[in-house]
Amino acid sequence: MKAVALTHYLPIDHPDAFLDVTLPTPTPSGRDLLVAVKAIAVNPVDTKVRAPKAKVEETPRVLGWDAAGVVQAVGPDVSNFKVGDKVFYAGDITRPGTNSEFQLVDERIVGNMAVSHSFEQAAALPLTAITAWEALFDRLKVSVPSQPTILNKTILIIGGAGGVGSIAIQLAAKVAGLTVIATASRPESEKWVRDLGAHHVVNHFGDVQSQLAECGFQTVDFVLILNDTDQHFPMAAAVIAPQGMICTIVENAKPLDVSLLKSKSAGFVWEFMFTRSMFQTPDMQAQGDLLNEVARLIDSNVLVTTLGKVLLPINATNLRQAHAALEAGHVIGKIVLKDF
């Protein structure tokens, strides 16, 4: 099978940062699906795993954690899918990734594609949808009201125009009924987050606390940090409401002063969407279930894809281009590669 892989961890402008290779097609066992990959998306985690370091892989390593495709074969213990089903998923960081013609993935972390979606539209969603869903509903414990149009709580989403922010805005505003304040720093990214449902927009390069006050908010009930935890945590601690909750998906480089939250009895929690698959938690199926719910919300016109740009085909040259764009830090929505 065709695949894009690496053997050395190199700067993305190096011609060998990614290589077009041919690898054996794997065979499914247990609860694994063998998926014929039709489209993939690129995420910041891809660039972090690929970041330059001295390690050398003895055999080519395939990265990638977002895909949409067709079930080609199933393991003997599979019960949720059959050959021919169209699926989307983010995969497991401990296993070979999505940047290959065929991939094995545990059925419990796979969802059925939205009927109304193309493969490229579907591939833009899994990792970010799982991350946003788990951050909001599992980590921050946001409740879904019986009448989502009643805006009774507030959330500040830092990094609203990125992949996770783009779906988190929609889930928070359209499903959870929250008043959403998103950060964006450019006219095009401000328009993007407003079109997705953000009620207010502030610039994360400015004084966020003052901008919130200008919008009428002295505090917010929830903060979701999707960019530079070290920079934004002190501000988040300052604006979080008493008994509020802060969640981040971005690792910190320095110790965080969580004592800032003590007087408010506020909480701080991490979200890492690979936790369930990495530790084979008893609730792994929750990821497949939430992806099915995301697909239902897509087909019901509640949510829209966060696809920003499509590159054809899936090869080393285009994958280098996608990684370079992410590392430059100005991507709106998701970059998707389609077809081998």
From TrEMBL:
<keyword id="KW-0479">Metal-binding</keyword>
<keyword id="KW-0560">Oxidoreductase</keyword>
<feature type="domain" description="Enoyl reductase (ER)">
    <location>
        <begin position="12"/>
        <end position="337"/>
    </location>
</feature>
<dbReference type="InterPro" id="IPR014182">
    <property type="entry name" value="ADH_Zn_typ-1"/>
</dbReference>
<keyword id="KW-0521">NADP</keyword>
<comment type="similarity">
    <text>Belongs to the zinc-containing alcohol dehydrogenase family. Quinone oxidoreductase subfamily.</text>
</comment>
<dbReference type="Pfam" id="PF08240">
    <property type="entry name" value="ADH_N"/>
</dbReference>
<dbReference type="GO" id="GO:0008270">
    <property type="term" value="F:zinc ion binding"/>
</dbReference>
<dbReference type="InterPro" id="IPR011032">
    <property type="entry name" value="GroES-like_sf"/>
</dbReference>
<dbReference type="Pfam" id="PF13602">
    <property type="entry name" value="ADH_zinc_N_2"/>
</dbReference>
<dbReference type="GO" id="GO:0016491">
    <property type="term" value="F:oxidoreductase activity"/>
</dbReference>
<dbReference type="InterPro" id="IPR051603">
    <property type="entry name" value="Zinc-ADH_QOR/CCCR"/>
</dbReference>
<keyword id="KW-0862">Zinc</keyword>
<dbReference type="InterPro" id="IPR013154">
    <property type="entry name" value="ADH-like_N"/>
</dbReference>
<dbReference type="InterPro" id="IPR036291">
    <property type="entry name" value="NAD(P)-bd_dom_sf"/>
</dbReference>
<dbReference type="InterPro" id="IPR020843">
    <property type="entry name" value="ER"/>
</dbReference>
<protein>
    <recommendedName>
        <fullName>Zinc-type alcohol dehydrogenase-like protein</fullName>
    </recommendedName>
</protein>
